[in-house]
């Protein structure tokens, strides 16, 4: 890596505040002097402002971390990456984005498409104080509507860079083909697509900038304490942090998640202990998310619940698995429950989404077989289209199928609501969920368990009845909730409230998957 490449790779967003004082492990040493010009080192080490700035911290950490692997370098044993100047991706990209590039692109996309795209902030900043953004994409995006929602995420795990690229390119693909391809146009007429390309913002900065390239988890160093940038950037702390895809509440603390903070799949101090997963919990709970996808690398699987040994066979196993098998066909991968085709994991996104709302939630394990969580960029292109290294295995085809599934009323529920124009409609549920009985040690021979933790989960979403209308169609999740204890549904009702001019009317609605119910709240005027 050239000195100029080092500085570029270590660039840190200007909005992040500097650190003072500089920790001992970042002091200038011979190793650093071998990388940067001695005169430049002398200038930096006598300049207090630069010494305390994050950009210098990042440069020093990269310089002092050995061995170094350049961004885009082919992993040992992997086939050589072809030199590319453009690609068939919607953006033509040939290199992995940085976190700053992702954030800038999300802003530009929203500004360029105000009728189709809304950028939003998730409610909780990362541990290092970064705001995490997502995009909402549909026709007439700023209007309240009852469209079903498909949520797609990238980068729960910091080193899985292709998941950011695949998510970003699909965003561009949708917008590029809207109004050109009738199928894409119809999907954006009928579905609200929500994308969060980077769930783990701090981890991505650490990995993508090559400070801690193989980092998996977030920046939590110690339970209940906010870390510093230097803590997370220190290569000695690479194995610290919480695995965000073990921190969701449903079945948290069970099999396939580490009790020890040093474990690769450390579950965290409590369910939803991490702000990144608090964000995801609230996003899922405040929208009628009928389909969800968590992108990962690199193991060629389409995964659904159960993901832990503590779970039952899902009450919706027939339609749920049927969709999984169709996705497996799109990607030429094995599809099914985690323990059967992969390994066990508890506290995953799929568990939280399915057991709280009946969402058909999946994981894609993208870009397999390259001995790397972020192989050369050509493999991202091949995975997106199902070409080259992955003939017929197209993530794009899987994403389109999930949009189609979200649009299919047979796979969720529909409320036909009679209500006065201008009224606000809300639907709400509150209920109790559980973690797993808690493992107390990572020792395989010790099956000792603590009591499961019970927690309250609320689902709440709303829409407005348009002017001049007296009826809305609302695509929602079933009110019948999958049991965490058996292959059955818990009979629950949505509480639907109509509010207008200080008056309100509330009714309870029980609706199953594939059902349409007529609801009359016209007396709320």
**Can you identify the CATH class of the largest domain?**
Alpha Beta
Our count of domains comes out at 3
Q: What is the fold-level CATH name, i.e. the topology of the largest domain?
A: Aminopeptidase
Question: Mean of the pLDDT scores?
Answer: 87
The helix count comes to 16
Structural class: alpha/beta
Roughly what percent helix?
Answer: 25-40%
How many E strands?
19
Strand order of the largest sheet: 1-2-4-3-5-8-6-7
How would you explain this protein's 3D organization?
It is a single chain. With 525 residues, the protein is of the alpha/beta class. It folds into 3 domains: 62 residues, no CATH class; 313 residues, Zn peptidases (Aminopeptidase, 3-Layer(aba) Sandwich); 111 residues. Helix content is 29%, strand content 20%. The protein has an 8-stranded mixed beta sheet, with helices on both faces. A 4-stranded antiparallel beta sheet has the order 13-10-17-18, with helices on one face. Helix 12 links the parallel strand 6 and strand 7.
Kindly summarize this structure in a few lines.
The protein has 525 residues and is of the alpha/beta class. The protein has 16 helices and 19 strands. Helix 7 (162-177) crosses helix 15 (377-385) and helix 12 (317-331) packs antiparallel against helix 16.
């Amino acid at each position: 890596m050239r000195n100029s490449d080092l500085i570029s790779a270590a660039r840190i967003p200007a909005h992040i505040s500097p650190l003072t004082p500089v920790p001992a492990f970042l002091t200038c040493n011979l190793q650093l002097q071998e990388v940067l010009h001695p005169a430049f080192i002398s200038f930096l080490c006598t300049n207090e402002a630069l010494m305390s700035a994050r950009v210098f911290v990042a440069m020093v950490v990269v310089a002092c971390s050995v061995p170094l692997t350049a961004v885009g370098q082919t992993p040992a044993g992997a086939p050589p990456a072809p030199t590319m100047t453009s690609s068939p991706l919607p953006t033509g990209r040939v290199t992995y984005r940085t976190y700053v590039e992702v954030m800038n692109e999300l802003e530009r996309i929203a500004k360029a498409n105000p009728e189709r795209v809304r950028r939003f902030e998730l409610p909780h900043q990362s541990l290092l104080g970064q705001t995490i953004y997502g995009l909402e994409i549909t026709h007439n995006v700023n209007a309240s509507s009852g469209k079903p929602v498909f949520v797609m995420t990238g980068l729960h795990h910091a080193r899985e860079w292709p998941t950011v690229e695949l998510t970003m390119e699909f965003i561009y693909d949708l917008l590029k083909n809207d109004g050109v391809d009738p199928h894409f146009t119809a999907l954006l007429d009928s579905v609200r697509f929500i994308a969060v390309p980077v769930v783990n913002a701090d981890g991505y900065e650490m990995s993508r900038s090559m400070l801690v390239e193989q980092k998996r988890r977030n920046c939590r160093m110690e339970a209940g304490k906010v870390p510093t940038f230097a803590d997370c950037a220190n290569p000695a702390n690479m194995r610290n942090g919480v695995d965000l895809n073990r921190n969701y509440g449903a079945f948290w603390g069970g099999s396939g998640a580490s009790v020890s903070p040093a474990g690769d799949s450390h579950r965290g101090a409590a369910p939803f202990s991490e702000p990144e997963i608090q964000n995801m919990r609230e996003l899922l709970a405040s929208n009628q998310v009928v389909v969800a996808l968590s992108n990962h690398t690199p193991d060629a699987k389409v995964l659904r619940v159960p993901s832990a040994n503590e779970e039952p066979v899902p009450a919706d196993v027939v339609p749920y698995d049927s969709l999984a098998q169709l996705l497996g066909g799109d990607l030429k991968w094995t599809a099914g429950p985690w323990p059967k085709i992969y390994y066990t994991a508890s506290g995953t996104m799929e568990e939280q989404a399915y057991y709280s709302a009946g969402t058909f939630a999946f994981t894609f394990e993208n870009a397999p077989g390259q001995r790397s969580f972020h192989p050369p960029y050509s493999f991202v292109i091949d995975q997106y289209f199902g070409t080259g290294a992955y003939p017929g295995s197209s993530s794009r085809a899987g994403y389109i199928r999930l949009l189609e599934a979200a649009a299919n009323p047979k796979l969720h529920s529909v409320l036909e609501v009679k209500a006065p124009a201008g009224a606000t409609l809300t639907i709400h549920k509150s209920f109790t969920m559980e973690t797993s009985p808690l493992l107390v040690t990572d020792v395989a021979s010790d099956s000792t368990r603590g009591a499961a933790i019970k927690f309250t989960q609320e689902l709440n979403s709303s829409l407005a009845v348009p002017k001049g209308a007296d009826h809305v169609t609302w695509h929602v999740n079933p009110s019948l909730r999958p049991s965490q204890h058996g292959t059955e549904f818990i009979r629950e009702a949505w509480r639907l409230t109509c509010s207008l001019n200080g008056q309100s009317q509330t009714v309870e609605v029980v609706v199953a998957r594939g059902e349409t119910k007529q609801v009359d709240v016209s007396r709320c005027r």
